[in-house]
Amino acid sequence: MWICRVILSLLAGCFLLVPATVMAMAVTFLNPGKSDEIYWATASNCMMTAARNLGVQLEIIYVERDHLKTLELARQIAARPLQSRPDYVILSNDYAVGAEALRILDGAHIKTFFAYSGFSDAGEREKVGIPRQIYKGWLGGLEPHAEDAGYLTARALIQRGRAEKLMHSDGKLHMLAIAGDRSTTTSYKRNEGMRRAVAEAKNVVIDQVIYGDWNRAKAQEQSVWLYQRYPHTRLVWAGNDLMAFGAMESWRARGGKPGRDAYFSGINTSSEAFTALESGSLSALAGGHFITGAFSLVMLYDYHHGRDFADEGLELDRSMFILFTPEETRRFQHLFGAQNFDRLDFRKFSKVLNPAIKKYDFSFRQILNQADLRK
After folding, report:
1. What proportion of the chain, given as a percentage, has pLDDT over 90?
2. Nearest to 41 by CA among 72, 62, 27
3. What is each CA distance from 105 to 26, 58, 76, 301, in whole angstroms?
4. Which residues pair with 205 in a beta bridge?
5. Could you write out the DSSP letters of every residue in 81-93?
6. Closest Cα partner for 56 from 320, 317, 347?
7. Could you say which of 35, 36, 75, 178 is the most buried, measured as most Cβ atoms within 10 Å of its Cβ?
8. pLDDT at 338
9. What is the distance between the alpha carbons of residues 282 and 285, in angstroms, rounded to a whole number?
């Protein structure tokens, strides 16, 4: 009898040694962008690499910038049979749909994580509270410090204006700003960064801020009358690369030469943006924050495998952007110009797989530095 007891004890011990990590981990990402938008396609491609590295089952569904579709998709996911539901849903609070989507998914006991854009509005915050309280399955979030992008590009644009001696007769530099939209946290914070750079410069005037809804064609159309209204302005700040391209196109249409008689800045890492930066038609470019989704997977992977990220905070707002130098531009294009991120190994950033890591490093510059050039 005692032999049986020993055997049973040993077997029980063996089962205890089998880690919970053997359980499949399934994640659905509700991508808020359009499937043909280069930024959001880049974000998805990078996430798929991270998922392959970590052995995560990743499903990506594009919302196509239709905020009501986010809620429709949340309901569909919540209505799936239990065995078909993901363990986690990553989503973004674009157009203030996060609170309702969170209510739907939490009601179905599906854990959620906000990436790229979280809750900044006081009214929304009152509804949702903080992670893991009102909504127990809301684990937290990760946002790129969007203010950095606005600040870095505006500061570089202002420095270029000074170098070119573009001061108006009033002794000030005049700038136009084409912002994203009026509702998303990302747009608001990028604008705040731009305004901070202007305030620091002291001799810069923002002639007007318009909202191009991240859209190239709309920015092109709007900038036509902006140039007519402010013919003396030679600096144009844009909240993303597409709007910068639209503003550059309308400047060319009136006979201008971007990078020679007017100066433009943009945000993101499209191949067109890098080409424009190298040619000089784009004077400043910040980017790298597309990695937010991939690092969100790393955080959830660690959480799923018993290493909670709560010790660093539940809603992380971290620096990711860099202002691209010519050397970094060339390196990015060499490494990732084909939208292939297989040179990266996101296992290097996991605390579970690398117990010596005490704090997550989400900077994009480390991605450029650690990517394997040999492949």
Report:
1. 80
2. 62
3. 15, 17, 10, 19
4. 174
5. -GGGS-SEEEE--
6. 347
7. 178
8. 80
9. 7
Q: Which runs of consecutive H residues, i.e. helices, occur in the chain?
A: 2-17, 38-54, 67-78, 98-107, 122-128, 146-163, 185-201, 216-229, 241-253, 271-279, 292-304, 326-336, 364-370
Give ∠ CA 118-40-269 in degrees, rounded to 5: 105
Angle between helices 216-229 and 241-253 (to 10 degrees): 50
What is the pLDDT, as a whole number, of residue 20?
37
DSSP code string of 203-250: SEEEEEEEE-TT-HHHHHHHHHHHHHH-TT--EEEESSHHHHHHHHHH
Span 261-274, pLDDT tens digits:
999 999 999 999 99
DSSP state of 356: T
pLDDT confidence tier of residue 10, bands split at 50, 70 and 90: very low
Residues with Cβ within 8 Å of 216's Cβ and at least 6 positions away in sequence, in order, are: 242, 243, 245, 246, 249
Rounded Cα–Cα distance for residues 112 and 94 (Å):
15
**Main-chain dihedrals φ then ψ at residue 265, nearest 5 degrees:** -130, 160
Average pLDDT over residues 112-126: 89
Give the type of residue at 371.
A
**pLDDT level of residue 145 (50, 70, 90 thresholds):** very high
Query: In which band, very low, low, confident or very high, does the pLDDT at 67 lie, cut at 50, 70 and 90?
Result: confident
Token duo for residue 274: 């890098």
Q: Predicted confidence band at 371 (pLDDT cuts at 50, 70, 90)?
A: low
The DSSP output letter for 35 is: T
Of 116, 123, 128, the closest CA to residue 90 belongs to 116
Range name among 32-46, 103-117, 184-198, 329-343 with the lowest pLDDT average: 329-343
Tokens (6 digits) for 233: 């302005």
